[in-house]
Structure formats: structure tokens, C-alpha cells
TrEMBL record, chain A:
Membrane topology of this protein: Multi-pass membrane protein
Lineage: Bacteria, Pseudomonadati, Pseudomonadota, Alphaproteobacteria, Hyphomicrobiales
Top-level division of the source organism's lineage: Bacteria
PANTHER family: BRANCHED AMINO ACID TRANSPORT SYSTEM PERMEASE, HIGH-AFFINITY BRANCHED-CHAIN AMINO ACID TRANSPORT SYSTEM PERMEASE
Primary localisation category: membrane
Assigned keywords, A-Z: Cell membrane, Membrane, Transmembrane, Transmembrane helix
Protein name, UniProt field: Branched-chain amino acid ABC transporter permease
Origin species: Rhodoplanes tepidamans (Rhodoplanes cryptolactis)
InterPro entries xref list: ABC_transp_permease, LivM-like
Annotated transmembrane regions: 31-52, 59-79, 85-103, 112-130, 160-179, 210-235, 247-272, 284-303
Localization: Cell membrane
TrEMBL record, chain B:
Keywords: Amino-acid transport, Signal, Transport
The Leucine-binding protein domain, residue ranges: 35-384
Name of the protein this chain belongs to: ABC transporter substrate-binding protein
Plastid as UniProt keyword: no
InterPro entries: BCAA_transport, Leu-bd, Leu_Ile_Val-bd, Peripla_BP_I
A Pfam family: Peripla_BP_6
Signal peptide stretch: 1-32
Keyword Signal assigned: yes
Membrane-crossing residue ranges in chain numbering: none
UniProt record similarity statement: Belongs to the leucine-binding protein family.
Length: 315, 392
């Protein structure tokens, strides 16, 4: 029974929806809503990496680059090209997919460390372009993002964005869960375990890897667009190397390949720095220490470890 | 025993998680009387830490000293300080936290233009005064009701340079600028105001931030007839190379550098070629050489002494911005005799003749910076050191 519930797709979605619905009731001020909205946004980006790293076993150290592309799509589109923000968001997602396709085709022939380094280079290039093309992007000082207007309604305010980002996360989670259960998901997990074996049973390894990369880029792009629209301002450091590492850390801390894990990992890295500010200058050191402690004690990630524990108890 | 190990791990995780959650909700231990809460978000770590770190230290020292003297209006001051690591998104979150959760009455911080611009909407919406420590003129132009800043802008530096040129009878100049953020911004500001001084820019060249040789550009300037001086808006290593090439080409026209190179490392990099170069810089740089009757002498020396004795590091102009920011704020609260954010805002706007480490501030509804060109001192490099060209 418990096993069925824990592995049910519906249960995961209901759990996420319940959490999203409950947080505003408990939050004492809109600051907490903002932090929660940031968790949903970064969880969405981390979900993309769950598909790429968790399902397909490929490492990307440049995913903040896609976050940056999505973010600047909604900044540059309306401001310089006069496009509708929502259209810009969609175009940004398409652009991320296309860039991932173009970059992924040669890169995904590489394995292991080489792939990680190639994606790292990609992320650095995006951040560099955003910083130096100041005529378009405003340079290192960043640029304003025009407010989104939907059917004459100006979208602003922390609680509005809370619900939008929460909704986006649910849609992303639904997609990720369905992919996991689909033949493509099984193919991805097969090539995760052994590329040779997967190819042997007829999986088009290169094509599946590329598909996972493109999809994960679109997830990150949409998350970037939401971040830029919510903040109303964006700087190139959104695409920075540290953010790429943070995204990977979220997926690993939460639990590789787990949808709930991506959300828990995002919550870990977004909420914890806010909680640790009481430590002042020791904040960064303690944050690093906590990550180490968690990885040593729960090497499979928070969510899979807890799930195994529950199942062992029930058995 | 994998199960017990896992359980132990779980327990450890639970303890860590609960302390983390508890600390979110924990109220910082209160001081005797109800404290006045002033918020700050600076980039004490990350790529902008060379700006944010002295700011953070200055703010902490200032509030510590203030509380030792009995605080503000008989109440202790509590500085709620967060480090955004130079990340605009984090800065925005901390700004929301200061407003929504910490309930601060005012804010001084925002190390970079990026973090400041990201935080402005939060304070404008909440109608809480925000004194920024970042450079760009966009922060106060157009004027926003609740946003102020203390660092001088590129425009003031341009005006100071052109003032000096005018007094030397120079009317036709060449300009060579960097294409980095600083160089571009300053070039644009200089071009805007150059006409006010009856000066024309007859030759213009540029160089990339990592270029290693500017001889071709300088040669073109050298061959332009009738130039009387050359101006180099730039930041980092570029201006040092320009200065060296300038001397190698044997150009004898006066060379003006910007406040972007007002540090000892510029003199070291440019070597003997730096002799005779003029540049505008804040009084803090020549604190020891200021005349005894200089209005800023006392403030600058006191700040320099207290900072250097407490931190063991040389004072920097960036810390000076923080010093002026908090001091303007504290004086405004004193004048307003209130911690009502709107009244503090009005009082900051009416700041008049405040003598700070950076300069003399007089704000108005149209000017939320309030620094004139006198906040800059025109310096000349002589014998490997700064020498003020004018005595007040």
C-alpha cells in the first residue's frame, strides 16, 4: 500500500499542490511568499536537470546559461523588439531548445568529464555575451524587465507571482513524471545504466540524450523567464557559473532522478542561506558544511533516502 | 546495520533542519530600549567584495560607535545587515526581507548598480528611504521619491576635469576611452557636459578593456592638429597602458585621467610616465595632505583613523560612501525627530551642507545626490605621489 502511494504519480502531484496551497496560509509575511516563489522557480529549473542528469545520467555544468537566455528573452524581447512578454517567454523557451539542439548535437558525443567541461564552457560563453553586449543587454549593470500585461491585467505583486510560479512548477512536475513513466523515460534510464546495453536493445542513444538535453534547457529557460518577470530586473550573474553549480547541487542534494527531490533540493539551497544569515560571515562556510553532512549521511539524496527508510519500516 | 545508520542520519538531518527553521523565526535578541532598525544589503563577498567589504566594515563600526555614545534619540540602533554576494536576485530577496520581516525604517546599501536597481522597486513600493552606495547616475536620474545615493557620478568627474581645463585655457581636446562599462558610461557623461565649458573634443579613440597596446590610437591623436590636452576615461589596467604609451610617443600635452584610477596601484603600473598626469579624486585619498582649515579635514581624518585602527587595512573611497550614507541617514533621523520612514525621507532630502568623507552634500527635491564638483580634488602626480593642484 505504502509502496504504491510512494511511487504513484498522482500522489506526488497532490503532495506538491498541497504544499503550494498551504504555504501562503502559514507565511507570516510576503517575504516568505517570495522565498517560496523562488523555490518553485529554481525547482522548475532543477526538474530539467532531473530529466537530464537523473534520468539520462548526463551532467551539465552550464545550465544557468539557459536560465540566462530565458531571462534575457523576456527582458530584451519587449524592451528592444516590442514583443509581448508572454510571447517573449515562449520564444525564449524555443530559443533555449534550439540552442540546446545546436550545442547538444556535437557536445553529447562526449562522455563523462568531457561533456561536463563542454557544457561548462557553454555556460561561461552565455554569461560573457550577456555581460559584454551592453548595447542589447545593458551590460554588467543589468536591465529592467517590463511588467507582463495579460489581457489588460498588469501582472505584479508577490502573491500573484507565487501562484504563477507554483502553477508552472506543477505543470513541469507533471511533464517530468509522465516522461519518467513513458517509453522514452525507460530508454533514458536504460542508457543511464549502460549506454552499450541500451544501444544493444535498440535505444537510439544519441537521439534520446539530445532530447533530454533540449527538454532540460527549455525547463531552465522558462524558469529564467519567470525569475526575470517576477523581479522586474535582471543582471548577467543569473547566467553565472555559480548558479549552474547550484542547480546541479539542488538535484543531487534532493535526490537524483526524483521529482520531489528536485523541489526539496531547491528549497534546501534557497531557504538555507536565508536561515543562516544569523551566522553572518560564517554563513557560507556553514552552508558548505551542511551540504557535506547531508551528502555523507544521505548519499542517495534527501528524498530517495527518506523513501527507502519509510519502505523498510513498512516492510 | 544499515537501518540504524540511516535512522541516525535521519535524526541528524532533522536536528539540522529544525535549527535552521528555528533560526528563520528566531527574533534577534532585543536591546534595552526599543531599537531603531536600519537595514543594509551589501556585496561583502563575491566579485564586488572590494567595494562591499569596506562598506560593511564601515557600517558596523559606525553603528557600534553610535550605540556606545548612547544611540540615536536615546534608543539603540540595530543594523540588520545582509550579504548578497553581488547577486541581484539575492539582493532583491534580502530587500523584501528587510521591508516585510525586519521592518526597518530605512536602508543604506546596494553596493553595485545592478543590485541597487534590483532593490529599488521594493523600497519605492514600501515607501521606505533607500540610500544607495552604487555609482551609476541612473539611480537618482530621474529622481525617485525614496531613493538617494552618496557616491559621486561620472558626470561630476567630467565636470571637474573640464573646469580644470577651462582654468588652464584649454578649448580643444582629444579623448581616448575604454569600452568597458566604466569607460563607456563616463565617455557618454563627458560628451553631455563638455559643451558647457566651451571645450570641443576634436579627436576620439577607444580601446578594449584587455588591449595591451594603445600606440596606434594615440598616434592618431598625436597627429591631430591643435589639440591642447587629452582625456582618458577608463578603469583598471587600460589607463596605465595609455599613460605609458603616451610617454613613449613623446606627447607633451597635459594628460587627464579619471577617478577610476585613483589608487596607488595606478602610479605603480604607469611608472615614471605618470609624472604630471592630472585626475579628479575624493579628499579621502589625500587625507594627510589636506590643509588644516579644509572643511573636510576633520571628518576625513577621523574616519580614516577609526577605520584603519579597527580593521588594520588602508581606508578606501568605497568605505567612505558607506560612512556618508549612514551618517546622512542618522542625521536625518535626528533632524526629523522621528523614525517614520516618510519623515526620514523628507529629512534626507533636506540635507544641507553635510560635510562627509566623500564631499559636501546638499540635497534637494531635484537632486538626490547633492554632490558638487568641489567633492573632487584635482590631483597631479609628482614624484610618485598625489599632490593637490589647488588649495582651499
Amino acid at each position: 500500500m505504502l509502496k504504491r502511494v510512494l511511487s504513484s504519480r498522482l500522489a506526488v502531484l497532490v503532495l506538491l499542490a498541497a504544499i503550494i496551497a498551504v504555504v501562503p496560509v502559514l507565511a507570516p509575511s510576503s517575504f516568505y511568499l517570495r522565498v517560496a516563489a523562488l523555490v518553485w522557480i529554481f525547482a522548475l529549473a532543477a526538474l530539467g536537470l532531473t530529466i537530464l542528469t537523473g534520468y539520462a545520467g548526463q551532467v551539465s555544468l552550464g545550465h544557468a546559461g539557459f536560465l540566462g537566455i530565458g531571462a534575457y528573452a523576456v527582458a530584451v524581447g519587449p524592451a528592444k523588439l516590442g514583443l509581448d512578454p508572454l510571447l517573449s517567454l515562449l520564444l525564449g523557451a524555443v530559443l533555449c531548445g534550439l540552442v540546446a539542439y545546436a550545442v547538444g548535437r556535437p557536445i553529447l558525443r562526449l562522455k563523462g568529464y568531457y561533456l561536463a567541461i563542454a557544457t561548462l564552457g557553454f555556460g561561461l560563453i552565455v554569461a560573457l555575451v550577456l555581460t559584454s553586449e551592453s548595447a542589447v543587454t545593458g551590460g554588467p549593470d543589468g536591465m529592467q524587465v517590463p511588467r507582463m500585461v495579460l489581457f489588460g491585467w498588469r501582472v505584479s505583486g508577490v502573491s500573484t507571482w507565487y501562484w504563477i510560479t507554483g502553477g508552472a512548477l506543477l505543470v513541469g512536475a507533471l511533464l517530468a513524471l509522465n516522461i519518467q513513466a513513458s517509453p522514452s523515460g525507460r530508454a533514458l534510464r536504460a542508457l543511464h545504466d549502460s549506454e552499450v546495453a541500451a544501444a544493444g536493445v535498440g535505444v537510439d542513444v544519441a537521439k534520446k540524450k539530445l532530447a533530454a538535453f533540449v527538454l532540460s534547457a527549455v525547463f531552465a529557460g522558462v524558469a529564467g523567464s519567470l525569475l526575470a518577470l517576477m523581479n522586474g530586473f535582471i543582471t548577467p550573474d543569473a547566467a553565472g557559473f555559480m548558479h549552474s553549480i547550484e542547480l546541479v547541487a539542488m538535484v543531487i542534494i534532493g535526490g537524483l532522478g526524483s521529482v520531489v527531490g528536485a523541489v526539496v533540493g531547491a528549497a534546501f539551497l534557497v531557504v538555507l542561506p536565508q536561515a543562516l544569515t544569523v551566522l553572518q560571515e560564517y554563513e557560507q562556510a556553514v552552508l558548505g558544511l551542511l551540504i557535506m553532512v547531508f551528502m555523507i549521511l544521505l548519499p542517495a539524496g534527501i528524498v530517495p533516502s527518506l523513501r527507502r527508510l519509510l519502505l523498510e519500516r513498512a516492510a | 546495520m544499515p537501518q540504524t545508520a540511516a535512522r541516525r542520519a535521519l535524526r541528524a538531518a532533522a536536528v539540522i533542519a529544525s535549527t535552521a527553521v528555528a533560526s528563520v523565526f528566531a527574533v534577534t535578541p532585543g536591546l534595552a530600549a526599543d531599537p531603531i532598525r536600519i537595514g543594509s544589503v551589501v556585496s561583502a563577498t563575491g566579485p564586488a567584495s572590494f567595494l562591499g567589504d569596506p562598506e560593511q566594515k564601515t557600517l558596523k563600526l559606525y553603528v557600534e560607535a553610535l550605540n556606545k555614545k548612547g544611540g540615536l534619540m536615546g534608543r539603540p540602533v540595530e543594523l540588520v545587515l545582509y550579504d548578497d554576494g553581488g547577486d541581484a536576485n539575492k539582493a532583491r530577496t534580502f530587500a523584501t526581507r528587510l521591508v516585510e520581516d525586519d521592518k526597518v525604517v530605512a536602508m543604506v546599501g546596494g553596493t553595485t548598480t545592478g543590485t541597487t536597481m534590483a532593490m529599488i522597486p521594493v523600497f519605492e513600493d514600501a515607501k521606505i528611504p533607500f540610500v544607495s552606495l552604487a555609482g551609476a547616475i541612473e539611480i537618482v536620474e530621474p529622481v525617485r521619491a525614496f531613493v538617494f545615493k552618496t557616491p559621486h557620478t561620472d558626470k561630476t568627474a567630467c565636470q571637474k576635469i573640464f573646469e580644470d581645463m577651462k582654468s588652464r585655457g584649454i578649448t580643444k581636446v582629444g579623448m581616448i576611452s575604454g569600452t568597458d562599462g566604466f569607460g563607456k558610461s563616463m565617455r557618454a557623461q563627458c560628451m553631455k557636459v563638455v559643451g558647457d565649458y566651451g571645450i570641443t573634443v576634436a579627436a576620439e579613440e577607444s580601446y578594449g578593456p584587455t588591449d595591451a597596446d594603445m600606440t596606434p590610437q594615440l598616434n592618431k591623436i598625436k597627429n591631430t592638429a591643435g589639440l591642447q590636452a587629452v582625456l582618458n576615461p577608463g578603469f583598471g589596467q587600460g589607463p596605465a597602458i595609455v599613460t605609458r604609451n603616451y610617454a613613449q610617443l613623446g606627447i607633451t600635452l597635459p594628460l587627464y585621467q579619471s577617478h577610476g584610477v585613483a589608487s596607488k596601484s595606478f602610479i605603480e603600473l604607469a611608472g615614471p610616465a605618470a609624472e604630471g598626469v592630472r585626475l579628479p579624486a575624493p579628499a579621502l585619498l589625500i587625507a594627510d595632505k589636506l590643509a588644516e582649515n579644509d572643511p573636510q579635514k576633520k571628518v576625513v581624518m577621523e574616519y580614516k583613523k577609526s577605520y584603519e585602527s579597527a580593521t588594520g587595512q588602508p581606508v578606501s573611497t568605497f568605505g567612505g560612501y558607506g560612512f556618508d550614507g549612514i551618517q546622512i541617514l542618522v542625521q536625518a533621523i535626528e533632524r526629523a525627530k522621528s523614525t517614520e520612514p516618510r519623515k526620514i525621507r523628507d529629512a534626507i532630502e533636506s540635507t544641507k551642507g553635510y560635510v562627509g568623507a566623500t564631499g559636501l552634500y546638499t540635497m534637494s527635491p531635484k537632486d538626490h545626490l547633492g554632490l558638487g564638483t568641489e567633492s573632487f580634488r584635482m590631483l597631479e602626480i609628482k614624484g610618485g605621489d598625489w599632490v593637490p593642484t589647488e588649495t582651499k
